[in-house]
Every structure is written in C-alpha cells, then in structure tokens.
Write a structure and sequence with these properties.
The complex is a heterodimer of chains A (230) and B (182).
Chain A (H helix, E strand, L loop, with lengths): L2 E6 L2 E6 L4 H7 L23 E4 L2 E4 L10 E3 L3 H17 L14 H8 L16 E2 L5 E4 L8 H5 L9 E4 L6 E4 L1 H5 L3 H10 L5 E3 L25
Parallel strand pairs in A: 1-5
Antiparallel strand pairs in A: 1-2, 3-4, 3-5, 6-7, 7-10, 8-9
Chain B lengths: L4 E6 L5 H7 L4 H8 L1 E2 L14 E7 L2 E3 H13 E7 L1 H5 L11 H11 L20 E6 L9 E3 L6 H13 L14
Parallel strand pairs in B: 1-2, 1-3, 3-5, 5-7
Antiparallel strand pairs in B: 4-6
Classes of the chains: A alpha+beta (230), B alpha/beta (182).
Bound molecules: iron/sulfur cluster.
Chain lengths: 230, 182
Amino acid sequence: MSELTFFIDNKECKAKKGQTITEAARDNGVYIPTLCDYPGIRPAGTCRICTVKVNGRNMAGCTTPVEEGMIVENKTAELEDMRKAIIEMLFVEGNHMCPTCEKSGNCDLQALGYRYTMMVPRFPYLWPSREIDASMPKIVIDKNRCIQCLRCVRGITTADGKHIFGTLHRGDKTRISADPELVAAMTDEQAQKAMDICPVGAILKREVGFKVPMGKRKYDSAPIGSDIEK
Amino acid sequence: MSKPIVATASLAGCFGCHMSLLDIDDRILQLIDLVEFHKSPVDDIKKFTKMCDVGIIEGGCCNSENVENLRDFRKNCKILVALGECAIMGGLPAMRNDIPVKECLEEAYLGSPTIDPKDPKIIPNDDDIPMILDRVYPLHEIVKIDYFLPGCPPRADLIWEALLTLATGKELNIPYEVFKFD
Ligand code: SF4
C-alpha cells in the first residue's frame, strides 16, 4: 500500500492511501477531536468538531482523505475556539443536565467540555421541549441529550442489516426515533452496543445505571484524546 | 491592603456547594486569614452593611425571593461568582422547566403518593410565600455574572484555587481531576 506524506501543524505525518485526516492523525499520535465519528462506522461529518484547515480552507477531518503533501492546521487558537464554540452550542441546544445523567463521566460531549475548560456556554440556553421515550423493553431514549450525531443510525443494525434507529423531521426539529418492531426485538448486547455508541446519555440500557463509581469512569482522571497524543 | 470581603448565598440549590466549600478542610484557617466573610450562611450575617469584593452564589432562581436576593448581591458585590451547576444552568431544579408550574404544584401538593388523604388538599398560596417562577433560571439569565465554577458540587480544590486567585491575584490553576460537571 502506498504511503503519503502530509503535515499537521508542521509535524511530518504518514498516511495510508484512502485514510481520512482524523484517522491518519491518530496513527501519528496527533489528536483531532471527534464526536460524531466512531471507529468502524462510515464517517458522516455531522458535528464539525474535527474541523481543520487544509491548505487554508476549513474541512471536516473525518471525511477528508489525506493527499500527498497536504498542509493541515489543527491546534491553532482559531480552530480550538471554534471547536469550543461548537461544544457550547451543543450544550445550549439540548437539555444537558450532567449531574442527573447516567452517562456522566463516560460522555464524549462532557469530556470535550472538560478538555476545553467550558466554564459556561457563551450562548443562551434554548430550553427545548423534548421527549423521553421509555416505552421500549431494553433501552430508554432521552431526546433532551441527543446531539444528532447519527452514530446510532449508522452503527446499530439487526443481524440482517436493518437500521434500528432513524431520524424524524429536519433541521433543529430533527429527532432520533427507533423502529418499534426492531427495537422491541433488540438483544441485551445490541442495547449495550447502542448505549456505548451514543456519545452522550441519549440512549441508555434499561435496568443498569451509575454502575461505575465516580473516580473510575472513562474521563474522570485523563482528558479525552490523551491516549492518542504523543 | 485590607482583606477582601466575601459574601455567599444559596438560592435554589441544595447547600451542597457550601458543603464543598467546607471540604477545603483545615485550609479554612488560611482562608479566614485571607478574607473576611460578610453576609453568608457560614457566619449567619443576614444583611449587607458594606460593599463586598466577591459574592459567591450557589443555586439558580426558582422563585421571586431568589431573584431579589440575587439582585441584592449584584448591587453589593463587585464580583459575582456562579458556583455549581444549578447556578450555571439551573441544575436538578431545572428539570421542571418543561413542565407547566400548575402541573408541578398539583403533583407536589395534590397528587403525590405521600399526601395524607385526610389532609385538606391545598396548594399553598400566601403573600409571605415567595412566588414560584415559570421555570428555573440560571443566574446569568437574571444578572451579570463575572465568573463560573462548574461541578455538582464544584470540587473543594477548585473552589480553593478560585478563592486564592480572587484573593491574591495568583494565576488560576485547574487540575483536570477537579474540573467536572457532576
Ligand atoms: S441518540 Fe445518541 S447516537 Fe443517536 S444521534 Fe442522538 S446523540 Fe447520536
């Protein structure tokens, strides 16, 4: 497989042909924050947290393949502030009550809030009215927390390839919904997978909660991305 | 230089943030050397009698009294700090924000399983009781807030660092483990 050379913040990096900027960055020990991107599922570029400057233009790192000689800017003050603004926007756009959420400590959105030291969102809270759907046997969907990353839509399918989750409506009215029949037939493993794939606490597996004590959760002692950074 | 004067209050909070302040343990002795406490549940001073340098407020605003209190703090403190999730985004009390007040009151006073069926079914409504607001408001939706310290409660070490910074002007140091939203 041919190897490409490219640069992130002046660091010389190597990529395999076809690799996206975020994937290749990871292999080179450079962390580009991602939220809607998830290993093993097709990138969708919905959240824009991975925005980098490629040859001077803003591009989503998770959907842009590396090209030979590419000049990528990543950790600049401008991009970092824009990423922080996106996180703050996501916090005000839903109802994110961290102290009440089972995902707290394991939540990617919250972890990015920590990484960027979000003291308070710079935008006004929108207090949207959103539903909690607790009608399903294996999972609960709390739409207050959904950030419309579509990880569940893309990543959770039945054994024969049918999508269990989908979206209703468009724009700021977009809501995640589950197919009633498929969701009713979900196994415990699928429910766990759905909870794990959701970056926030919008999909929760029923009958377990707050299982891991504070201090031992994923993002309690080390920032998101610190496992990648070298 | 005279000691900075600090006032504190708990509005629609659970006093957890104040408890966390006490969690600075024996550093409280250093704190007493560094600052003077004015109106605060810590020393039970009820009224402002002088201008304060720093006002620290736990809890958001869920009723008219909270709003009056907050405005009083804004008037009497040079710097206002929102302490904890309730002050910053409403916190647990704000979980009612999508439920009409009427329904909340009916659930609490008429329909709740702990209501004694023999009791008269009354929703308290008296001039002496603060008026409940249509929803819970974070502090900065009501007055200007200068600084925010997240956490539920904010870790004692975070409060300590922030107080040191405010009192001595040293640079704020936030270790990763003490900066949390829960
Ligand atoms: S439910 Fe979770 S995984 Fe699905 S779109 Fe919302 S935030 Fe993303």
